[in-house]
Specification:
alpha/beta; Rossmann fold; 2 domains; 7 strands; about 35% helix; binds S-adenosylmethionine
């Protein structure tokens, strides 16, 4: 059969096949890069009344280790240390925010309880957490899901405004828009809580 096709035509066919494959590959890259599911997550701090409610919902105690994934200026772990004496770890992609969080922790007198690291929170070891807080887009929460579900029994996870696809929360709480008082022109918030099932191991 191939002997019936002149060499010039066969060359064109190979070239066309190559071009088709190349454009399919480029389209795949373009789609993956441009996917709104993986939009970069900017620094937008949780208002302090929301932070307080997240920590209450997680029932943070002195013996907890609170991990905030995408810790921004460090307010969640710093508040957990100040209010409850809990240890904390904050991870943020932005080294400048990590420096800011470290300076704030020093200022607030809790630098012996908390630590902040620059890096991609998707790749860090969070197995030491007993509480995880998230104010991250859903695509991030979805990618974290397998790691979150492997955390120790008794671990609580609280997410601000963005849930985890296909993982029904233990509790959902709606916060009113004027949470910080009549001067707060904020928007209503939703908090999601998950509890990792099983009997917590003794400290
Ligand atoms: C919406 S802010 C939340 C800040 C803080 N957790 C709070 O609730 O106030 C999200 C933060 O996540 C950081 N971030 C985005 N992608 C990240 C990633 N893959 N790993 C670690 N931090 C990330 C951003 O730099 C930003 O500071």
């Amino acid at each position: 059969m191939s002997r019936l096709i002149p060499p010039s035509v066969s060359k064109i066919m190979v070239r066309n096949q190559f071009l088709t494959l190349l454009s399919a590959f480029l389209l795949l890259i373009l789609f993956t890069k441009a996917s709104p599911q993986e939009q970069p997550i900017p620094f937008v701090p949780s208002p302090m009344p929301v932070v307080d409610r997240m920590l209450e919902l997680a029932e943070v105690k002195r013996d907890d280790v609170v991990y905030d994934l995408g810790s921004g200026d460090g307010r969640i772990v710093i508040q957990a240390a100040k209010k409850y004496g809990a240890k904390g770890v904050g991870i943020d992609l932005d080294p400048k925010l990590v420096e800011l969080a470290q300076a704030k922790a020093l200022e607030e007198g809790v630098s012996h309880l908390v630590e902040f690291h620059a890096g991609d929170a998707l790749t860090v070891d969070i197995s030491g957490a007993t509480v995880v807080t998230l104010y991250m887009f859903r695509w991030f929460n979805n990618q974290m899901r397998p790691k979150l579900q492997r955390l120790k029994p008794g671990t609580r996870i609280v997410a601000h405004d963005f849930d985890v696809e296909g993982w029904p929360p233990t509790k959902v709480e709606y916060l009113p828009e004027n949470l910080a008082g009549p001067d707060d022109f904020g928007q209503p918030r939703t908090l999601y809580l998950w509890k990792i099932e099983g009997r917590p191991s003794p400290p």
